[in-house]
Automatic annotation (TrEMBL):
Organism: Linum tenue
Domain Lactate/malate dehydrogenase C-terminal stretches: 33-195
Similarity comment: family membership: Belongs to the LDH/MDH superfamily. MDH type 2 family.
Organism classification: Eukaryota, Viridiplantae, Streptophyta, Embryophyta, Tracheophyta
Listed name of the protein: Lactate/malate dehydrogenase C-terminal domain-containing protein
Keyword flag Ligase: no
GO BP terms in the entry: malate metabolic process
Record's keyword terms, sorted: Oxidoreductase
InterPro entries: Lactate/malate_DH_C, Lactate_DH/Glyco_Ohase_4_C, Malate_DH_AS, Malate_DH_type2
GO molecular-function terms, A-Z: malate dehydrogenase activity; oxidoreductase activity, acting on the CH-OH group of donors, NAD or NADP as acceptor
Keyword Oxidoreductase: yes
Length: 202
C-alpha cells in the first residue's frame, strides 16, 4: 500500500497516519507538496518566458504552508546553448509569491485550487510509481531521516528521485546560510504542529 495525504495540514496528517497505522511502512506514506513544486515551476516559466518543461530541479522544502521554502539554487532552465542556472534570473518576490499562491488564488477566485491539487496528486503518484526522469528530481513530503539536518520524525518536503516504486532523498546538495535559515524555520513550524497534534491525541 502506498499512501498520499492531501488534506491539510498535510505533513502533520501524514505523520499522524504513520504513528497510528504502524502496519504501513513509513516509506509508503507521503504528503502532497507537488502542488507547490508545480507552482514554482510555473512562476519561473512565466518570469523567464519559457515552457514549463524547460525548467527542472526546483525544490520545495518543509511544510505545505506559507513557511515552505521554494528553492531555486539548484534549478536550471534549458536553452539552445545548454542548461543555465535559474538562481541569477529569479531574484524578486519569487519566494513569497509561491508561498502565498494558494491564498492568492482563493482571494481572486473565491474558490480553492482543487483541480490543480488533483492534477498535482496525479503527477506525484505517476512519478512515485513509474519513476522520475534521469537527472530530474521532484518535491515530496516524506519521513525525515535527518538528511540536511532536518529533525528525524517529521514529514518534511525534500527533493526526491523515484525508481521502482520507491522514493529516495537527493543527497549532497549545498545549502547556503539563507537557505539553512529557511529550512530550519519550516522545520520549527512542523515540530510545533507535531507537538500540538500529539497533545490532542494523547
Amino acid at each position: 500500500m502506498q499512501v498520499l495525504v492531501v488534506a491539510n495540514p498535510a505533513n502533520t496528517n501524514a505523520l499522524i497516519l504513520k504513528e497510528f497505522a504502524p502496519s504501513i511502512p513509513e516509506k509508503n506514506i507521503t504528503c502532497l507538496t507537488r502542488l507547490d513544486h508545480n507552482r514554482a515551476l510555473g512562476q519561473i516559466s512565466e518570469r523567464l518566458s519559457v515552457p514549463v518543461c524547460d525548467v527542472k530541479n526546483v525544490i520545495i522544502w518543509g511544510n505545505h504552508s506559507s513557511s515552505q521554502y521554494p528553492d531555486v539554487n539548484h534549478a536550471t532552465v534549458a536553452t539552445p546553448s545548454g542548461d543555465k542556472p535559474v538562481r541569477e534570473l529569479v531574484k524578486d518576490d519569487f519566494i513569497t509569491t509561491v508561498q502565498q499562491r494558494g491564498a492568492a488564488i482563493i482571494k481572486a477566485r473565491k474558490l480553492s485550487s482543487a483541480l490543480s491539487a488533483a492534477s498535482s496528486a496525479c503527477d506525484h503518484i505517476r512519478d512515485w510509481v513509474l519513476g522520475t526522469t534521469e537527472g530530474t528530481w521532484v518535491s515530496m513530503g516524506v519521513y525525515s531521516d535527518g538528511s540536511y539536518n532536518v529533525p528525524a520524525g517529521l514529514i518534511y518536503s525534500f527533493p526526491v528521485t523515484c525508481q521502482n516504486g520507491e522514493w529516495k532523498i537527493v543527497q549532497g546538495l549545498p545549502i547556503d546560510e539563507f537557505s539553512r535559515k529557511k529550512l530550519d524555520l519550516t522545520a520549527e513550524e512542523l515540530s510545533e504542529e507535531k507537538a500540538l497534534a500529539y497533545s490532542c491525541l494523547n
